[in-house]
Amino acid sequence: MADTEFLINHFLIAMPGLADPNFFHTVTYICEHDADGAMGIVINRPLDLSLGDILSHMDINATPDTAPLPVFQGGPVQTERGFVVHAPLGDWEATLKVSEEIGVTASQDVLASIAAGKGPPRSLIALGYAGWGAGQLEQEMADNVWLSGPATAEVLFDTPVEKRWEAAAGLLGVDLTLLSSDAGHA
């Protein structure tokens, strides 16, 4: 793939026929993608866990406003590792700049800032990530497993979780309810 074909700052939208339980009806925000592989965070799989639950294990106190924030299942890889997708970019220790406005931070300082009510105004907290080896995502794209399109902060942060799959596809003008879940090639 040429650099212009990498899917950084894009959504991967699971096609209706994708039966893998890790990705059924998911939207994944692609944070990194190059010839060596890709990494993304699933943005529409809330866990039965809140930020307060995680922070209590880290001995960090949350404010009443931040304790109930949801935590998402970011993917099946390293599910004990936390990631914060946020806007705008900030000055945290381990931030990957995905776009001019959005970063992904994997250090505890961003969680402490969020807990204190001083973190980024828009964030999504996830455990784990989705990963693809060299050529794997490209093959899955060729096999029509995913739709892809540019990501928007509105879908990422503001759209209700249960509507993100349809909303991300809607950015491409696709109505997923009209697509068959049966895979096939002409």
What is shown here, in short?
This protein is an alpha+beta fold and 186 residues long. It has helices at residues 51-57, 108-115, 136-142, 153-158, 164-170, and strands at residues 10-14, 27-34, 37-42, 46-50, 70-73, 77-87, 95-97, 103-105, 122-133, 146-150.
Structure commentary:
Helices cover 19% and strands 33% of the residues. With 186 residues, it is an alpha+beta fold. β2 and β3 form a beta hairpin. Strands 1, 2, 3, 4, 5, 6, 7, 8, 9 and 10 form a 10-stranded mixed beta sheet that branches.
Q: Which shape, going by the Cα principal axes? A: globular
Low-pLDDT stretches:
none
Report the count of strand segments: 10
* N- and C-termini, Cα separation: 24 Å
User: Helicity level, as a percent range?
Assistant: 10-25%
On the 0-100 scale, what is the average pLDDT?
91
CATH class: Alpha Beta
Distinct helical segment count:
5
Q: Give the helix/strand class.
A: alpha+beta
What summary fits the major beta sheet?
A: 10 strands, mixed
Supply the CATH superfamily name.
VC0467-like
Reported CATH architecture: 3-Layer(aba) Sandwich
